[in-house]
Design goal:
Blueprint lengths: L5 E5 L9 E5 L3 H12 L5 E6 H14 L4 E6 L8 H13 L7 E6 L1 H13 L5 E6 L2 H7 L4 E6 L2 E8 L5 E3 L9 H18 L1 H9 L1 H5 L3 H21 L14 H10 L6 H18 L5 H13 L12 H9 L10 E5 L5 E6 L2 H8 L4
Parallel strand pairs: 2-9, 3-4, 3-5, 5-6
Antiparallel strand pairs: 1-2, 7-8, 10-11
Helix pairs in contact: 3-4, 4-5, 5-6, 5-9, 6-7, 6-9, 6-11, 10-11, 10-13, 11-12, 11-14
Length: about 375
């Protein structure tokens, strides 16, 4: 039985001319060359990827394009989200003849999408880009919404911009080459979206854990489309994260700090999963979340094979510093987005430092 195609429009109210569609369909990658041909406006196409995706899909994708194109890659992993890699990509693009009418295709996971998107935002003061995410995490999170950027030694995603793509093309079929750990990584973001925004969606995930974990094509396509639709609706109302879009940061305040403190040994989704559990525990302590709802959240994460155990933070200084530098912080200190029920959250909660220390077991 054929898996249906989902087309989700993302209509930016403040800038309708920058609105675009997100397409979800298995086998879409093979049909993208015709799409790229329609999207380009005469200039060269530059495909930016990492060396792993280059081997899996990049060379074949490049050879199938019908237009002049150059493939540029960089080493995989979070450690490549830095200014040095960006500078190298800027150089490669300039030497390759990039112009304002060029098109950049970000082909890869979240790191590729963030880095290539940031390069597109900054080269020649902005070149159009297309997001083609190849990991579940990137498909449901980083490829949608135009947030692009790199890390700084003091924290994650502290350098960046808002640069919307002209289209997002999601092929769940590419997930067959994804390691199981990376597939689970993306499931954390799907649980986050459901827990923060949509109680019925949360229930769908609970009832279909077996099919989701087994990678059932129809179910995976369905949950990707639902997650993307929810995120797209939020982005449409709050493109630059001034209010409602912060709801998508459930689990990320502690999660990002854990990533930094672990020197990125924790995958993003793993850190977010732990962050969801930790921040939900704080929400229970502060009276926002019922204990039985906390149990539902943590049980679902565990059933999907994700970590929820709050690790002992050994390097308290790095952890606390990352919390204080978190981009969600304001003049009043670190602000959290806490669940106050399944499918609901409260934005901008000031959490006493001792609550964070007790839940995360920060030691000096």
């Amino acid at each position: 039985m054929a898996v249906p195609r989902h087309i989700i429009p993302l209509k930016l109210k403040r800038s309708p001319d920058r609105s675009y569609a997100i397409t979800v369909q298995p086998g879409l990658l093979e049909r993208l060359p015709a799409v790229i041909d329609r999207l380009r406006s005469g200039g060269k196409v530059f495909v930016i990827t990492d060396s792993t995706v280059r081997r899996l899909y990049g060379r074949h994708f490049l050879s199938s394009l019908r237009v002049p194109a150059i493939l540029i890659d960089f080493p995989p992993g979070e450690e490549s989200k830095n200014a040095g890699v960006v500078n190298g990509l800027h150089t490669a693009l300039l030497e390759g003849g990039v112009k304002r009418d060029s098109l950049i295709v970000a082909l890869g996971g979240g790191v590729v999408g963030d880095v290539a998107g940031y390069v597109a935002a900054t080269i020649l003061r902005g070149v159009r880009c297309v997001q083609v995410p190849t990991t579940l995490l990137a498909q449901v999170d980083s490829s949608v919404g135009g947030k692009v950027g790199i890390d700084h030694p003091l924290g994650k995603n502290l350098i960046g911009a808002f640069h919307q793509p002209v289209g997002v093309y999601i092929d769940p079929g590419v997930l067959r080459t994804l390691p199981a750990r990376e597939f689970r990584n993306g499931l954390a973001e799907i649980v986050k979206i459901a827990a923060a925004l949509d109680a019925p969606f949360f229930g769908i995930i609970e009832r279909n854990v077996r099919g989701i974990s087994a990678g059932d094509p129809r179910m995976v396509s369905r949950i990707i489309a639902r997650a993307v639709s929810l995120k797209g609706a939020v982005v449409a109302r709050d493109e630059q994260e001034r209010g409602l879009r912060k709801a998508l940061n459930v689990g990320h305040t502690i999660g990002h700090a854990l990533e930094v403190a672990s020197e990125y040994r924790l995958r993003h989704g793993e850190a977010v999963s732990i962050g969801i559990a930790a921040e939900s525990a704080i929400a229970v302590r502060m009276g926002f979340l019922r204990p039985d709802e906390f149990e539902r959240v943590t049980r679902l994460l565990m059933r999907l094979g994700l970590p929820v155990r709050i690790p002992r933070v050994r390097n308290a200084a790095v952890f606390v510093s990352a919390l204080s530098l978190d981009k969600k912080s304001g003049a009043g200190g670190t602000r959290f987005v806490l669940l106050n029920g399944i499918g609901r959250c409260v934005i901008g909660v000031g959490v006493p430092p001792e609550q964070v220390s007790e839940v995360c077991r920060v030691t000096s």
